[in-house]
Specification:
This protein has 176 residues and is mainly α. The protein has 5 helices and 2 strands, in the order E-E-H-H-H-H-H. It folds into 2 domains: 65 residues, no CATH class; 89 residues. It binds zinc ion (ZN).
Length: 176
């Protein structure tokens, strides 16, 4: 790959450092890329969204003083790619959806429990209002209904935790 530098037109001097490939067979020689090299490498090490945006803007504002627009576009594309391959971005990508599934199941568990308790009490009231002699039966059904609701709550919550933790394990394993 003896590409000429898209900025200065010279061949890269390998003793001065690596050239930056721009894609489509073009590159920036080590001398021309030097002013933005540190910031570009820094895209790998961002720790939050603010740093991601700030580092990208820093690269763009330096690039605007040095290079032509098509080179700036290439550099921005490289910066975005590096940001996406950063451990922070990878972690964010995997973390958000995994939390969502487990949390949804646990929210559903709470809703089902509340519904179960409310239905049991309504059923008891209906039975007693139909025939007051069946009061004891109504109370027993209501208590059993509440116990069932509590048990299903326990099972669904447990399932939600299981989903969350197994997704966390997958996330940890896929990092390395
Ligand atoms: Zn150059």
């Amino acid at each position: 790959m003896a590409n000429l530098c898209a900025q200065c037109g010279k061949r890269n001097n390998p003793f001065a450092g690596e050239a930056l490939p721009l894609g489509n067979g073009r590159c920036l020689c080590s001398t021309c890329v030097r002013p933005i090299r540190n910031a570009l490498d820094g895209m790998y090490y961002v720790r939050n969204d603010t740093e991601l945006t700030e580092t990208r803007n820093k690269i763009l504002s330096s690039a605007q003083q040095l290079y032509s627009q098509d080179i700036i576009d290439c550099i921005d594309r490289i910066a975005v790619q590096r940001g996406k391959s950063s451990p922070y971005y990878q972690y964010k990508q995997h973390h958000v959806p995994s939390g969502k599934v487990g949390n949804k199941i646990e929210t559903l568990a709470s809703i089902f429990t509340a519904l179960g308790v409310v239905l049991s009490i309504i059923l008891m009231i209906v039975i007693i209002s139909i025939d007051s002699d069946l009061a004891i039966l109504g109370i027993i059904i209501s208590v059993l209904g509440c116990i069932m609701a509590w048990l299903s709550n326990l099972l669904l919550h447990g399932f939600g935790r299981l989903v969350s933790s197994s997704e966390r394990i997958v996330e940890l394993l896929s990092k390395k």
